[in-house]
Design goal:
alpha/beta; Na+/H+ antiporter like fold; Rossmann fold; Alpha-Beta Plaits; 3 domains; about 65% helix; globular; potassium; transmembrane helix; transport; membrane; Cation/H_exchanger_TM
């Protein structure tokens, strides 16, 4: 029986209750290293109509809370990267598709089997079973990706497979949110309706992606040129909710519109800034959404069917674990990697509750069964962190042969490196690693390379290269390669997370070992240096130095002077070359970006800096400076007595925040 409401739904006390309960719930759950979503669900269950009754009607909050899901799907679209998907296509569209499809199919069979064996539970249609199967097919991106990052396993073979499957699950949610409402109609031409819904989705996607990409980029540039953070934020809300409204009016879900807008923005240089700006809205509204989900929980029903809760948790966990492990093994992974992948994906996820909420709104499943399902999902997510944390120990019990095989492989590496002294260890043996190896061999410098591409290792070993099949991000591999006797370590691949993991182990075991790290650009230069890298070689900047050296030579500048200039750039940690003008294809820096950039600012009529000198303009010198002034075709160095004039072009050098402050002062 529902309790009498304690607070008015529109009172200040009610707002304080929601905020206070959310803060307390999240603090408690985060103190146990559990995700915030579980704290929100628990808060909803405690203050909801079936518990203390502090909030009597969750439905009055649902309209606002659903916008949290809209912004969540916007974020998914924002993180959508076509190059990343193409690079991981075998995992995403092979392994990921198989996992979601077979999970749903198996869930339908298991659900219908339980109903058949236990007729007292009532009847369930195959449409409802399919919808629930879609909810159970999801895994928790928040829990899994966070734990993989903390354990530095994102770039391992196991980590890449798990992330690939999670990527496809995120994409599958978009389709499920479209299909589930069609399933609820229960008419004879259901497949025709599903086909029409998918057809409309494809048409909307093609139209928006074809026409929307350039329009979005130009529109965001126009808004950003007004230099108003408030306007930029309002614009984001407008286009996100506007797209959600358009797709809803087209007979599709609001979430699809938000997802498409996120995809369009992900292809612009404003991606990072948008992600930062929208995060606060998304997190608050999403928290409210999960609180409303928690309010739906009737613990009396759960206690009545406690045995069914346990049965569903066990069956779902075992089924999802076995399926993911079997499929991963089928796609060429080792037994140990397959078992760890299965353990990482065996729980329910955030999108499970999004789909369950949709199912509840469509009255596809009996309310008591939804209660049982939601509690089962919560329990599966509660135990997930502990299972992932102990996955190595669990897998070792079931796959001891693989650990023996790995030990033999490490022994083989150790024996081959035993005679080496003052050798070079190379992490990675791709094109860069092989070039380094060739040059080291010419000087008869011994080396030992570690690489995870088995085919490459076999071919290189056959040709006589000193390379072994091993994961350089593992402590054991570095020890086997003789890190304590090595003269240096070269990380030859441009992967910051993997490089940081290797640096951590290298500096822990051999603090004085020189480590050289390859990076793509200067964006992670300071992070890698702080982690212990003795030298960081950014590809883009080094290629600039080589090209400039050739230009100097052709211009007739002596080689000694060229070498001196190049050495000066390197000794200054590339500081001068780390400043550049941002273009349309560049990632726009965030307000907290500490890197110094260049920015050209034209003084329009009426600008406050006109008639003033550089000394008279109050700029935050620790964050920005004026490097030169361009007046007509003349380039003028800035001096204390230089007076700024109308239409002067001021070249600013500073951080993102400093340049923004300078614009406010100068204009």
């Amino acid at each position: 029986m529902k309790r009498k409401p304690f607070l008015s739904m529109h009172s200040l006390e009610f707002v304080l209750l929601m905020l206070g309960a959310a803060v307390i719930g999240v603090v408690i759950f985060r103190s146990f290293q559990l995700p915030s979503i579980l704290g929100y669900l628990a808060v909803g269950a405690v203050i909801g109509p079936y518990s203390t009754g502090l909030v009597s009607d969750a439905q009055s909050l649902e309209g606002l809370a659903e916008f949290g899901v809209v912004f969540l799907m916007f974020t998914v679209g924002l993180e959508f990267s076509l190059p990343q998907l193409l690079a991981m296509r075998k995992i995403v569209f092979g392994l990921g598709l198989a996992q979601v499809s077979i999970s749903i199919l198996g869930s339908i069979i298991i659900t219908l089997a339980i109903v058949f064996l236990l007729p007292s539970l009532g009847t369930t249609s195959w449409q409802a079973a399919l919808a629930m199967g879609g909810a159970w097919a999801m895994s928790s991106t928040a829990i899994v990706s966070k734990m993989l990052a903390e354990r530095m396993e994102l770039e391992t073979d196991y980590g890449r497979r798990v992330i690939g499957i999670l990527l496809f699950q995120d994409l599958a949610v978009v389709l499920l949110l479209i299909i589930v409402p069609t399933l609820s109609r229960g008419t004879g031409d259901i497949w025709l309706l599903i086909g029409l819904a998918l057809g409309k989705t494809a048409l909307v996607l093609m139209l928006l992606l074809f026409f929307g990409k350039k329009m979005m980029s130009k529109w965001l540039s126009l808004v950003a040129s007004r230099n108003s953070q408030e306007l930029f934020m309002l614009n984001l809300l407008l286009i996100t909710l506007g797209a959600a409204w358009i797709t809803e009016k087209a007979g599709l879900s609001m979430e699809l519109g938000a997802f498409i807008v996120g995809m369009l923005i992900s292809e612009t240089r404003y991606k990072n800034e948008v992600d930062v700006d929208i995060k606060s809205f998304r997190d608050v509204l999403l928290g409210l959404f999960f609180i409303t989900i928690g309010m739906m929980l009737n613990m009396r029903v759960v206690f009545t069917y406690w045995w069914l809760v346990i049965l569903i948790v066990v069956l779902a966990f075992l089924y999802k674990f076995a399926l993911a492990a079997w499929l991963t093994r089928l796609f060429g992974a080792s037994k140990g990697v397959s078992l760890k992948t299965g353990l990482a994906l065996a729980q329910a996820g955030e999108f499970s509750f999004v789909l369950v909420n949709q199912i509840a709104g469509l009255n596809m499943v009996e309310p008591w069964l939804l209660q049982v399902t939601m509690v089962s999902m919560v329990l599966s997510m509660l135990i997930a962190p502990f299972i992932i944390l102990n996955s190595d120990k669990i897998v070792m019990r079931f796959s001891s042969n693989e650990w023996v095989q790995q030990s033999l492989e490490l022994t083989k590496i150790a024996s081959s490196a035993m005679s080496l002294q003052q050798h070079v260890i190379m992490a990675g043996f791709g094109r860069t690693g092989q070039n380094i190896a060739t040059l080291l061999e010419e000087e008869q410098i011994p080396y030992r390379a570690l690489d995870l591409d088995l085919e490459r290792v076999r071919k290189a070993e056959t040709a006589g290269a000193s390379v072994s099949y091993a994961d350089a991000t593992r402590r054991e591999s570095l020890v086997a390669a003789g890190i304590h006797r090595a003269s240096s370590l070269i990380i030859t691949f441009a992967n910051t997370q993997a490089a940081l993991r290797i640096l951590h182990f290298a500096k822990e075991m051999a603090p004085n070992l020189p480590v050289i790290v390859r990076s793509y650009d200067e964006s992670d230069f300071d992070k890698l240096k702080a982690a212990g890298a003795d030298e960081v070689v950014p590809e883009i900047i080094e290629s600039s130095l080589v090209l400039t050296s050739y230009a100097y030579m052709l211009y007739g500048i002596p080689m000694k002077r060229i070498l001196k200039r190049v050495q000066h750039v390197r000794s200054s940690r590339y500081s001068k070359l780390r400043e550049y003008f941002l273009g349309e294809s560049d990632t726009i820096p965030t307000e907290t970006d500490s890197y110094w950039r260049l920015h050209a600012l034209t003084l329009p009529p009426g600008a406050s800096a006109i008639g003033k000198t550089a000394q008279e303009v109050d700029l935050p010198v620790s964050q920005v400076e004026i490097t030169l002034v361009r007046r007509d075709k003349e380039r003028i160095k800035v001096s204390d007595d230089l007076v700024f004039q109308e239409n002067d072009v001021l070249v600013l050098r500073g951080t993102s925040e400093g340049i923004n402050l300078a614009e406010n002062v100068l204009l």
